[in-house]
Amino acid sequence: MEKGFSPTFYVPRNAISDIMDSQRGKIFTVEFTKKNGEHRVMNCRKGVHSYLKGGTNLWLESGKYPNLKVVFDMKKKEYRSVNLDTVSCMKANKKVFRFLDL
Questions:
Q1: Pick the CATH number of 8-100 from 3.30.1380, 1.10.10, 2.30.30, 2.40.50
Q2: What CA–CA distance (Å, rounded) separates 62 from 73?
Q3: How does DSSP assign the chain, residue by residue?
Q4: Could you tell me the pTM of the whole model?
Q5: Residues with Cβ < 8 Å from 98, sequence gap 6 or more?
Q6: Distance between CA atoms of 52 and 58, rounded to whole angstroms?
Q7: Closest by CA position to 85, among listed 71, 59, 66, 70
Q8: Tens of pLDDT along 39-94?
């Protein structure tokens, strides 16, 4: 167990999106595998509007990619997409979540 975090919770993979959305602007950490196979740990937030350049994200709004979530990378100060199918761990609200394929 990591310092400052409560025990690990094992939850179904389909709960990732709900946990991310429930943060309401709070910073959370997500661990996932990038498309090139590289493992990544990212501190991010949802609901950031400060760095938008206008327009809409047509490929995301099309519904063609339902397993992608757009988050704001706090370190790089840029928007990133996270594939929910490759998320292995998420830390939010001083809780650690591990996801199970059911």
A1: 2.30.30
A2: 23
A3: --TT---EEEEEGGGHHHHHHTTTT--EEEEEE-TTS-EEEEEEESS--TT--SS--HHHHTSS-TTEEEEEETTTTEEEEEEGGGEEEEEETTEEEEEE--
A4: 0.83
A5: 8, 9, 10, 11, 88, 89
A6: 14
A7: 66
A8: 999 999 998 877 777 766 666 666 788 888 889 999 999 989 999 999 999 999 98
Of 66, 79, 73, 78, the C-alpha closest to 17 is 66
Domain ranges of the chain: 8-100
Amino acid symbol at 34: K
- Please give the single-letter amino acid code of residue 52: L
